[in-house]
Amino acid sequence: MRDAVTTLIKTYDLTGRYLDRDAMDTLKSFYDSGLRRIKAVNVINLNSVDIVKTAAAGMFTQVPDLIRPGGNAYTTRRYATCLRDMDYFLRYASYAIVAADTSILDERVLAGLRETYNSLGVPIAPTVIGIQNMKVRTLELLGTDEDYSFVAEPFDYLSDGLSERDI
Q1: Of 24, 29, 129, 141, which sits 20 to 30 A from 151 (CA to CA)?
Q2: Which positions are tagged coiled coil (predicted)?
Q3: Which of 137, 157, 144, 135 is nearest to 36 (CA)?
Q4: Cα–Cα distance, 135 to 152 (Å, whole number)
Q5: pLDDT tens, position by position, for the chain (167 residues)?
Q6: Neighbour tally for 117: CB within 10 Å
Q7: Where are the domains of the chain?
Q8: Are residues 138 and 51 in contact, defined by beta-carbon separation less than 8 angstroms?
Q9: Cβ atoms within 10 A of the Cβ of 66, count?
Q10: How is domain 34-162 classified at the CATH fold level?
Q11: Distance between CA 117 and CA 127 in Å, rounded?
């Protein structure tokens, strides 16, 4: 797993360049936002059950066929699996927030997940709705006293990574 600092240094190292003004500004931004990133992840950690339950309730309201007979979240086992997966997405989003780097989402979550879900018949669109609902709930819990716009990035990255692509 990388963070914003190691990613930046790797990029400059591969091109054989010294850190320039842009690199220094990126580093400053990373360290300046550190306390807010830690606070955001602490809020996620303390409220993970609420975030997942609220997001799932919204998703099932938006796509009620999921919990009806024949739906992908019908039966207690499937419902629990859905909540477990949402919790995984939330946990990995929190890692990406701390690192200020979404590469962990490629490595640990997105690599092959869309294909796996498709092969199992797990609908992608409701999954994306659930991820977006978790983003909304997390931002609600953080409030508006400080700028937490960076919190949306890993949720949006997961949603984009799972979504269908035009060929």
Answers
A1: 24
A2: none
A3: 144
A4: 6
A5: 788 999 999 999 999 999 999 999 999 999 999 999 999 999 999 999 999 999 999 999 999 999 999 999 999 999 999 999 999 999 999 999 999 999 999 988 998 888 889 888 899 999 999 999 999 999 999 999 999 999 999 999 999 999 865 44
A6: 16
A7: 1-32, 34-162
A8: yes
A9: 21
A10: Globin-like (1.10.490)
A11: 10
pLDDT for position 166: 46
**Residue located via tokens 């409030």:** 143
119 touches 23 (CB < 8 A) = no
